[in-house]
């Protein structure tokens, strides 16, 4: 709820073949004398799911891999008695989804089997790269023309946060991104937002308009009465300094609510 602040192999036994002919043979055999050599059994081909995911990725591309296989590539290796697929599957099950897992803070991996600090850092790096790739899509183009990219960026940025976060995207006269900033951070259900600070920052950045957004940690995106009140106050306050608020987005894990698309209701 928003509030406005107005092991080694073992050796096998060996027998020496008896004298055969004018010269002694020193050949060693593990089979009894006179026994026929065992027929060679062809090695079984590994099932597709047991082929290491790195090889499948090189051969078929990343799109051919399942979520668990892609995660196994990131995890890299297993533990004695626990293969990399088992660890990847348990990791995905623990968090419930890839989005939640990649949005988790590094300390969320503490104590999880097969995930040490190095692997947790690798997962955090992947998330940051994804964020930066989405942020690049927002550069040098009007954000009003790419609402899907804006929502994808915000979902990745704040959609899985365990506490409410209020974000402002400051835009120039052509609706291109100047800067994305966190304006406030609260608890699971409560956050205080200061409209005057947002106005001050908009003037400092010479912004002509902005898009604001906050997340609902519960996942539900229906705005509360406090959300609606803040939206009204913030629009009116920004209008006094001729800065347009283009939208207020409520971000969930999967869904998004847009005040602008719902006639600011």
Explain how this protein is built.
The protein is of the alpha/beta class. The longest helix is centred in the middle third of the chain and has 22 residues, at 117-138. It folds into 2 domains: 50-130, Orthogonal Bundle (DNA polymerase, domain 1), CATH 1.10.150; 140-262, Cytidine Deaminase, domain 2. The protein has helices spanning 53-60, 67-75, 84-95, 98-102, 117-138, 147-158, 195-204, 225-239; strands at residues 2-4, 15-16, 28-29, 165-171, 177-185, 191-193, 209-215, 244-251, 256-258. β8 and β9 (256-258) form a beta hairpin. Mean pLDDT is 79; it is low at 7-29 and 43-49. Helix content is 35%, strand content 17%.
What is this structure, in a nutshell?
The protein has 265 residues and is of the alpha/beta class.
Task: Please describe the topology of this protein.
Elements: E1 2-4, E2 15-16, E3 28-29, H1 53-60, H2 67-75, H3 84-95, H4 98-102, H5 117-138, H6 147-158, E4 165-171, E5 177-185, E6 191-193, H7 195-204, E7 209-215, H8 225-239, E8 244-251, E9 256-258
Parallel strand pairs: 1-6, 7-8
Antiparallel strand pairs: 2-3, 4-5, 4-7, 8-9
